[in-house]
Specification:
CATH architecture of the largest domain: 3-Layer(aba) Sandwich
Strand content: 5-15%
Oligomer: single chain
Number of helices: 19
Distance between the termini: 31 Å
Number of domains: 2
Order of helices and strands: EHEHHEHEHHEHHHEHHEEHHHHEHHHHE
Mean pLDDT: 95
Helix content: 40-55%
Radius of gyration: 26 Å
Number of strands: 10
Largest sheet: 7 strands, mixed
Shape: elongated
CATH class of the largest domain: Alpha Beta
CATH superfamily of the largest domain: Crotonobetainyl-coa:carnitine coa-transferase, domain 1
CATH topology of the largest domain: Rossmann fold
Low-confidence stretches: none
């Protein structure tokens, strides 16, 4: 299949997770991605994250590898005049720049969106920061955990007893990466109509807000400050949430009247449908404690696995709580190959379309330095001089 971004060159001048993920997603859609790192240690994420200490010490942590496949790797010192020349030539050859540096850093390097667009007027400059441009916090540093805390997301997670809890995975990082990729795609479409490049201003805080859209709307319209609900569903239906079973837990999403009827019959409680306390949504809301008590008691009589089979068979939205290894063995995960859909078998995009991801594993720092420099018009003598001077670096394993 023809990849939608075939022929598009993306410069990945990012670090940690959100920025590299954005460039990785663009690569999965067929773009050529060239990752820029500083000679020496490169992206700090090479040495952070994951449980394999040997990989970490070798600069290939699993956290780095997750969004490192399908890219070419150029090590260059942008603080040096020669390194700056390399970078400017690269920008002239590119369609997209993805970066996640603070505006102050970009001003110091004279590489803000104003500068990069002057170098290449057709360039799409995608800037990914904690709080976006043009506000008092624009230069404040931030990681996923900081955004979860400041956005109000952590305050919604957990219970009154546990206190605020961070989500178990860095969802803001990856959601920001997806948001950035969407912004780049939109700007590329606009460029196809106008011929001009553009600026994509991606905020991690606004990404967190987007993930809480219905919660924010409810607060805006009602003034009700949301509180942590534990495993209760956001729908506030008493028959929706996560419940303990004889073995394991079951998550119910019973929000509609037909679903409640199917649930009542399936669990042997058809009398609920005739009980004035439970016969209507309004009555169930008034008597939610009583209904939750009865529902909890009946769910304790069978295993979560048994309930899942029985309830799905009659159309009740439900799911047994699973650990990650079990989740990755589910038919959708196996048959749609999410965990191996991306370049070199890494996790892919959450949809299937006409994508054609390059099958290239993550590579060492500077693995493609020489080949990229040759493409940019540098001769062997110039390249060797830059290598000797530390302006660029290349892998010893080439």
């Amino acid at each position: 299949m023809h990849a939608p971004l075939k022929g598009i060159r993306v410069i990945d001048w990012t670090h940690v997770l959100a920025g590299p993920a954005c460039a990785y997603y663009l690569g999965q859609m067929g773009a050529e991605v060239i990752k820029i790192e500083r000679p020496g240690r490169g992206d700090a994420m090479r040495y952070r994250g994951g449980s394999d200490h040997n990989r970490v010490s070798a600069g290939m942590s699993t956290a780095f590898m997750t969004q490192g496949a399908g890219k070419r790797y150029l090590a260059v010192d942008l603080d040096s005049p020669a390194g700056r020349e390399v970078f400017e030539r690269l920008l002239c050859s590119a369609d997209v720049l993805v970066e996640n540096h603070r505006p102050l850093t970009l001003e110091r390097l004279k590489l803000t969106e104003r500068h990069t667009r002057a170098i290449n007027s057709r360039l799409i400059h995608c800037a990914m920061t904690g709080y976006g441009r043009n506000n008092a916090m624009s230069d404040s540093p931030a990681y996923d955990v900081n955004i979860q805390a400041i956005s109000g997301l952590m305050a919604l997670t957990g219970t009154a007893d546990t206190g605020p809890i961070r989500t178990g995975a860095p969802i803001i990082d990856y959601a920001t990466g997806l948001a950035g990729a969407l912004g780049v795609m939109s700007s590329l479409m606009m460029r196809s109509q106008t011929g001009d490049g553009g600026f994509v201003d991606v905020s991690m805080l606004e990404t967190a807000f987007a993930l809480m859209s219905s919660t924010i709307t409810d607060y805006s319209l009602t003034g009700t400050n949301p509180r942590p609900r534990g495993n209760a569903a956001n729908s506030r239906s008493p028959s929706a949430g996560t419940f303990p079973c004889l073995d394991g837990h079951i998550s119910l999403g019973v929000n509609e009247e037909a679903q409640f009827h199917a649930l009542a019959n399936a669990v042997g409680k058809a009398d609920w449908l005739r009980n004035p306390d439970f016969a209507s949504p309004e009555a169930r809301n008034v008597n939610r404690s009583a209904l939750v008590g009865e529902l909890s008691a009946v769910l304790l009589t069978k295993s979560a696995s048994d309930w899942e089979d029985m309830l799905l068979a009659v159309g009740v939205p439900c799911a047994r709580l699973r650990q990650l290894p079990e989740a990755l063995d589910l038919p959708p995960a196996l048959e749609r190959r999410f965990a191996t859909r991306g370049p070199a078998g890494y996790p892919g995009l959450p949809y299937m379309a006409g994508t054609e991801a390059p099958d290239a594993a993550p590579r060492e720092l500077g693995a493609d330095t020489r080949s990229v420099l040759i493409e940019l018009g540098f001769g062997d003598a110039e390249i060797n001089e830059m290598l000797i001077g530390g302006v660029v670096g290349e892998s010893n394993n080439i």
